[in-house]
């Protein structure tokens, strides 16, 4: 990678609501070039019970979801943190986007996922695309529990890892193993990674 070249990062979780959006928000504030996505078939948020989730289509604006939940039960959704989360999301971008539907968003240098199932879906999606540019992309998974507190911790670690990657002088392929091993030791977190091609 040429010196001074900025990396493009994609943060991906299941619904593009909590973990990927917290990371998107923090990376953006750190001045990094970032987008975020979900890999699910729908956007799912906790409802009044385990069997009654709130389900929305990708592309439904965060503001519309906020208004819908506020209309349904403002106390419940304030207490469980969904309303503050959606308020944060509206300040980052318009609506949740689905990874598989956004191949037109261009090329990323690194894609970060926050659970193994999402990592597998992203790797599978990249492997199903026909490589045209022969440009490699680093896909990293760091498991982060899907709650507001853990999302904040995960996002801070994501910022740190992305800054380390962007600071690499020369080819990241040569030092990625060492960088990941050092990061795992320092933060006592296991990372998985894969390399795919655009």
UniProtKB/TrEMBL annotation:
Catalytic activity: O-phospho-L-seryl-[protein] + H2O = L-seryl-[protein] + phosphate; O-phospho-L-threonyl-[protein] + H2O = L-threonyl-[protein] + phosphate
InterPro entries: RNA_pol_II_suA (IPR006811)
GO biological processes: mRNA 3'-end processing; termination of RNA polymerase II transcription
This protein's UniProt keywords: Hydrolase, mRNA processing, Nucleus, Protein phosphatase
EC number(s) reported in the record: 3.1.3.16
Primary residence: nucleus
Record carries keyword Nucleus: yes
UniProt keyword annotation of Hydrolase present: yes
GO terms, molecular function: RNA polymerase II CTD heptapeptide repeat phosphatase activity
GO CC aspect terms: mRNA cleavage and polyadenylation specificity factor complex
Location within or outside the cell: Nucleus
Entry's family note: Belongs to the SSU72 phosphatase family.
Function noted in UniProt: Protein phosphatase that catalyzes the dephosphorylation of the C-terminal domain of RNA polymerase II. Plays a role in RNA processing and termination.
Record-given protein name: RNA polymerase II subunit A C-terminal domain phosphatase SSU72
Organism of this sequence: Zea mays (Maize)
Classification of source organism: Eukaryota, Viridiplantae, Streptophyta, Embryophyta, Tracheophyta
